[in-house]
């Protein structure tokens, strides 16, 4: 679970209370992995989490912390860019650890690929941090099978995670698997074979944006969202659960073993996802396809 993008740099008692409530709700829901990135709130998300750990140091042994680096946000003098040079990775990781108030990360993910930095340099940096015990495992985010293969060739520890935007709202990862040999295949904006590659290599697929910012559970944005929300509500009643759980079940039921990343500090929203982590999907084969067909708004080929 991620704690969102805390606005502003001055964090106060109200922010700390909100973070503590969110973490408590997550633990109550069985969530023990927390996802960060050095750019979230310009580091404030990690800082507030670190304050929670400072007040309850025993919490560290109960949870796993992962964070990401590699994006340099735009400034008045430069555009947004990606930077996975060895020195930058090391500096960012030590900044992350300082903000979190911990000696190591359970996982470090590279936030986005940096086409200008050679994989040899990136891999050496990851290997060094892993050998030193600063990061216990390493992975990537928003990378294709080919990019992972190129990086793994120069990285001693196994790359164990690929975090991608995946969900009912962002279905190119799924559409590509059934649009082979159709004209629509050319419109799939997702690298073919990446899901299958990760599954074959034992790389965990983490889905960021899994709840689609509430599009199907109360905050419709696109034509057709209401129809999906209605179906999710009906299935929630059938299975005596919440629409959020049905939405996550749909994602988790895929044989790739997708792990949803929930980004929120709302305890009620966290609680609504509880059953998704507590038990396997109860959706039938037919119900799963009905959800997909409703979201795509057209029959499968």
From TrEMBL:
InterPro entries per UniProt: AKR (IPR020471), AKR_Detox_Biosynth (IPR050523), NAD(P)_OxRdtase_dom_sf (IPR036812), NADP_OxRdtase_dom (IPR023210)
Gene Ontology cellular component list: cytosol
Gene3D superfamilies assigned to the protein according to its UniProt record, in alphabetical order: NADP-dependent oxidoreductase domain
GO molecular function annotations of the record: oxidoreductase activity
A Pfam family matched in the record: Aldo_ket_red
Domain NADP-dependent oxidoreductase span(s) in chain numbering: 2-288
PANTHER family from the UniProt entry: NADH-SPECIFIC METHYLGLYOXAL REDUCTASE-RELATED, OXIDOREDUCTASE YDHF
Protein name: Aldo/keto reductase
């Amino acid at each position: 679970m991620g704690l969102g993008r805390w606005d502003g740099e001055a964090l106060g008692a109200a922010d700390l209370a909100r973070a503590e409530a969110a973490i408590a709700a997550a633990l109550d829901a069985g969530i023990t992995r927390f996802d960060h990135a050095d750019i979230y709130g310009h580091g404030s998300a990690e800082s507030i989490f670190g304050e929670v750990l400072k007040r309850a140091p025993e919490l560290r042994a109960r949870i796993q912390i992962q964070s990401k680096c590699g994006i340099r946000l735009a400034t008045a003098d430069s555009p947004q860019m990606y930077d996975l040079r060895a020195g930058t990775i090391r500096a960012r990781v030590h900044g992350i650890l300082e903000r979190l108030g911990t000696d190591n990360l359970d996982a470090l993910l590279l936030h986005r690929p940096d086409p200008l930095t050679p994989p040899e340099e990136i891999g050496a940096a990851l290997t060094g941090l892993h050998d030193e015990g600063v990061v216990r495992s390493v992975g990537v985010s928003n990378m294709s099978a080919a990019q992972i293969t190129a990086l793994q060739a120069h990285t001693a520890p196994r790359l164990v995670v690929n975090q991608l935007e995946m969900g009912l709202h962002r279905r190119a990862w799924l559409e590509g698997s059934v649009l082979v040999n159709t004209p629509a295949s050319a419109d799939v904006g997702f690298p073919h074979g990446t899901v299958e590659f990760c599954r074959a290599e034992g790389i965990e697929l983490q889905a960021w944006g899994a709840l689609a910012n509430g599009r199907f559970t109360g905050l419709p944005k696109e034509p057709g969202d209401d129809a999906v929300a209605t179906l999710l509500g009906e299935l929630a009643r059938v299975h005596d659960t919440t629409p959020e759980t049905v939405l996550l079940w749909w994602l988790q039921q895929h044989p790739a073993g997708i792990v949803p990343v929930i980004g929120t500090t709302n305890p009620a929203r966290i609680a609504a996802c509880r059953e998704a982590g507590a038990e396997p999907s109860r959706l039938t084969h037919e119900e799963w396809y009905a959800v997909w067909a409703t979201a795509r708004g057209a029959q499968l080929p």
